[in-house]
Amino acid sequence: MGACLYLVGTPIGNLEDISARALRILTEVDRILAEDTRHSSKLLRHYAINTPLTAWHAHNEGERLATVLNWLREGQSLALISDAGMPLISDPGFPLVRAAREAGFEIHCIPGPTALITALVLSGMPAERFVFEGFLPARASARREALQAVRHERRTTILYESPHRLADCLRDIESVLGAERPVCLARELTKRFESVRTGLAGELAQWAQMPGDEGRGEFVVLIGGAEVEAPVRALDAAQVLDMLLSELPARKAARLTARLCGGKPNQYYQWALRDRQ
Predict the structure, then answer these.
(1) Measured between alpha carbons, how far is 182 from 125 in angstroms, rounded to an integer?
(2) pLDDT tens track of the chain, all 277 residues?
(3) How many angstroms separate the Cα of 259 from the Cα of each of 157, 237, 244, 250?
């Protein structure tokens, strides 16, 4: 195959959700770089693929990068896969792709399922425009700060969340974005116990306190976009002045109109005098 880096999408749940092209590439490359070799070996055994596996994860990217680039320089073909879905999407791989591109090696992507897109099309939320925030910070204050940054976001916001932080995350969504904000929870996508639950932030925050079996597994959290606020209508100075003149002397009404609507008090005073002629 020659020196080339393939980014291969793998199933996010059901092992059958993998393309024929992805299987061919995983069979033909010289080596597979996997986020967790124990996890990925299950997929390879299922399809009787015997390609050698090498660990490539967030903790060894820096020290292993030079070795992997040398393999490419030697003419090896490599496939990068994550535990589930597309590589680099909240998973390791970005430094390798950047370095391989800068070094002039061929890079090809073999698309596969992605949890965030699968959840989006299942959610019933607007899908034409969205923003992906990945995993929110684990620390409560940092998580609320991140949510504050998307408070006025009008696009659908997509997050990843682990089961043991889901309840805290939903409480913060309710607190920062409001109890009435639409939320969708998509869990265990394409697996046997896949579930999609929709509701308002306040309702789901309460449900998450005792979710039972539905609280297990990895979650995609989708947040409905902020509603467009009606523009605040500027006060009509003439109408304000007329209302104030019914209760106040002309000079005082003119000063208060200027404070409410802008402009110069003397101008409004002249209006008041003219109206009373």
Answers:
(1) 9
(2) 789 999 999 999 999 999 999 999 999 999 999 999 999 999 999 999 999 999 998 888 888 899 999 999 999 999 999 999 999 999 989 999 999 999 999 999 999 999 999 999 999 999 999 999 999 999 999 999 999 999 999 999 999 999 999 999 999 999 999 999 999 999 999 998 999 999 999 999 999 999 998 899 899 999 999 987 655 455 677 788 888 888 899 899 889 888 888 888 888 888 788 766 5
(3) 40, 10, 12, 14
Place of tokens 């698309």: 111
Nearest Cα neighbor of 59 from 83, 76, 42, 36 is: 36
Measured CA distances, 125 to 130, 154, 179, 210 (Å): 10, 12, 17, 25
How far is the C-alpha of 108 from the C-alpha of 66, rounded, in Å? 20
Tokens of 38: 């124990």
Whole-model pTM? Answer: 0.78
Q: How far apart are CA 174 and CA 194, in angstroms?
A: 24
Residue that is written with structure tokens 């523009």 in the block:
231
**Alpha-carbon distance 123 to 85, whole Å?**
18
Residue 139 structure tokens: 């620390």
